[in-house]
Design goal:
Distance between the termini: 81 Å
Mean pLDDT: 84
Shape: elongated
Low-confidence stretches: 142-153, 575-585
Number of helices: 14
Structural class: alpha+beta
Radius of gyration: 35 Å
């Protein structure tokens, strides 16, 4: 005895509220159980005899996937699609019959049946299929069934491929890498050619991948066959059009597209068959949980064996997994784009300060969402000096970015309105963030820079738990400014913060940075600080923009998993104009 039919787990979709009178009359005239499925295999109508034989009312039949709801093995087990003869005939769109199979009944019993299946065009609507069945003698009662021989190994190979597909496609969030891995999974294991057509967010179709395997196993991309495709027709029965509408998987051969084309996309598909020499192809929709993303076409040219309907369920499963992976990649990339736009708006433009060069850089965490808690700032103050700040709010997400914006804006307000030393400004900031923000911990360096005498500039600052600034002379001498160091923000400690002051000689470079530039897993902070110092000294002769870019490239650890903010400024009087001489490149 089988388990009672679970109609909740059988796939169901919306169907018309009632079948047409013509269809109802035709089904009731059949002297056997009968039902009709649409081009996705879902039941759209059933006669009274079918309801009685299956112990299921019409409302529990209509809208359900017939295979999932009814088809069973001889012991009542769920029947894999690859082993279902009726499902294969449905995919082939050909008449077929069988003397014995089993349907699940609503009361949990098994019904041995004989059946006949045939394509059935209804009122001009192609893609319908009629199934007629009647009760048969159960051969298990009289004759022991032999165990199948080769099927278990085939099923194990199929499951192994699907497991590999899941593991490889879900371990990346990059669309191009997902497609590359998909091609490597199916070519040449299943086909000589792999073609992927993707639907953009504007409903435009783009032939993204056309790959062929050469005799030596090399995968060759046919970029001449890639590019934009005509729109998908709404009513076309051609295989690619049906797949791109998410209707069903289909087999195709060279004759499929020899008939007069019904749309521009059929012309492109004929060109694909002609250019590749494919004699057989299997085409499956690439679906996400929310939408149809495209279609996967696997083709055979050198391999003389044509695809059969028995292979379609495997290709459907691979395409379904590809759809989930591509959907995740698209969502991730969309999030990155939104977050990057937000970050660009959060990080300010640098002010123009006469004679003082200034440049900034922000690099997001490689595996985060392009937004985090690292920030920089520079702005003119009411007394004519220029404020400098760099900081880090704990976290790498939108919450950290929001906290960063709060801290930065509060610091700006205090610095502008209060004519006080940097230490006092940061003390006020520390008191405020604990009461009017959600920021738990943060570090910051806040300072003022202004012109002094004899071409020098004066920097005064305080440091709340942040890595020390680096000062590089025009001759390559380096010094970390470790003075003025105090506790990070958010500890709740009420201690006086120290101030520090230094004179910046002509042509000197000051670098403010966040810890992502110097921290690396498995290494001490001293190692990173030493790497920064040595490379900054070696690059001291470079123009400031080149200095900053090269410093980031050389110093940021390859295994870095943190974002990086960097602010570099240079006082006038650089010894040599290396950019003009060409030696700075």
């Amino acid at each position: 005895m089988s388990e009672p039919v679970n109609r909740r787990t059988a796939r169901r979709r919306a169907v018309p509220s009632s079948p047409s009178a013509e269809l109802t009359t035709a089904l009731e005239a059949i002297g056997a159980g009968a039902y009709v499925v649409d081009d996705e295999g879902c039941i759209i109508a059933a006669n009274v005899l079918a309801e009685r034989m299956l112990a299921l009312p019409a409302e529990d039949l209509v809208g359900h996937d017939a295979h999932e709801l009814l088809h069973r093995g001889p012991q009542g087990q769920v029947l894999p699609r690859t082993q279902c003869r009726m499902r294969q005939a449905f995919h082939d769109r050909r008449p077929a019959q069988a003397d014995i199979d089993w349907f699940a009944r609503g009361d949990g019993t098994l019904l041995p049946i004989s059946w006949m299946i045939t394509p059935y065009d209804l009122a001009g609507e192609a893609g319908r299929t009629l199934i007629v069945f009647h009760a048969a003698e159960d051969p298990l009662e009289t004759v022991a069934q032999p165990e199948p021989a080769a099927a278990p190994m085939q099923e194990l190979e199929r499951l192994a491929l699907l497991a590999e597909t899941t593991a490889r496609l879900t371990s990346t969030l990059d669309t191009e890498e997902t497609l590359r891995r998909l091609v490597e999974l199916v070519v040449p294991r299943l086909a000589d050619w792999a073609v992927v057509d993707l639907i953009s967010e504007r409903d435009e179709v783009w032939r993204t991948v056309v790959v062929h395997v050469e005799g030596d196993g090399t995968l060759v991309h046919r970029e001449d066959l890639q590019g934009p495709m005509p729109p998908v027709p709404r009513e076309s029965a051609m295989p690619l059009s049906r797949a791109l509408r998410g209707v069903a998987s289909t087999l195709a051969d060279q004759q499929t597209y020899r008939q007069p084309p019904d749309a521009g996309i059929a012309v492109e598909q004929r060109h694909l068959f002609d250019a590749t020499g494919m004699h057989s192809a299997a085409i499956a929709p690439i679906r996400s949980t929310r939408d149809v993303l495209g279609a996967l076409t696997l083709g055979r040219s050198e391999n003389p064996v044509a695809f059969t309907s028995a292979e379609l369920p495997l290709i459907e499963d691979i395409a379904r997994r590809a759809g989930l992976a591509l959907d995740n990649a698209r969502l991730f990339q969309r999030q990155r784009k939104v977050a990057e736009t937000m970050q660009n708006h959060l990080l300010p433009q640098m002010p123009g300060v006469p004679d003082l060069q200034m440049t900034v850089r922000y690099l997001p965490a490689p595996h985060a969402s392009q937004v985090g808690g690292d920030w920089y700032d520079a702005f003119r103050l009411s007394d004519g000096s220029t404020a400098l700040a760099i900081g880090d709010v704990v976290g790498h997400d939108l919450e950290a970015a929001a906290g960063m914006a709060q801290v930065r804006n509060m610091l700006r307000a205090y610095a502008w309105s209060q004519q006080e030393p940097p230490s006092r400004i940061v003390e006020r900031l520390d008191e405020a963030i604990q009461h009017i923000t959600d920021v738990s911990m943060a570090t910051v360096i806040f300072g003022r820079i202004e012109a002094a005498e004899n071409g020098h500039w004066r920097l005064s600052w305080t440091n709340a738990g942040h890595p020390p600034p680096l000062l590089i002379s025009r001759d390559g001498l380096t010094r970390y400014l470790t003075e003025g160091h105090g506790l990070l923000l958010g500890t709740g400690a009420r201690t006086r913060r120290p101030d520090a002051e230094v004179s910046l000689p002509p042509g000197s470079t000051l670098v403010l940075y966040t810890d992502g530039l110097v921290e690396a897993r498995g290494h001490t902070l001293d190692v990173g600080l030493d790497r920064l110092r040595r490379n900054a000294a070696a690059l001291a002769h470079r123009p400031l923009g080149s200095f900053t870019d090269q410093l980031l490239r050389r110093v940021r650890p390859d295994e870095n998993d943190d974002d990086v903010a960097l602010l570099a400024l240079r006082t006038p009087g650089h010894a040599m104009d290396w950019a003009a001489s060409g030696r700075g490149r």
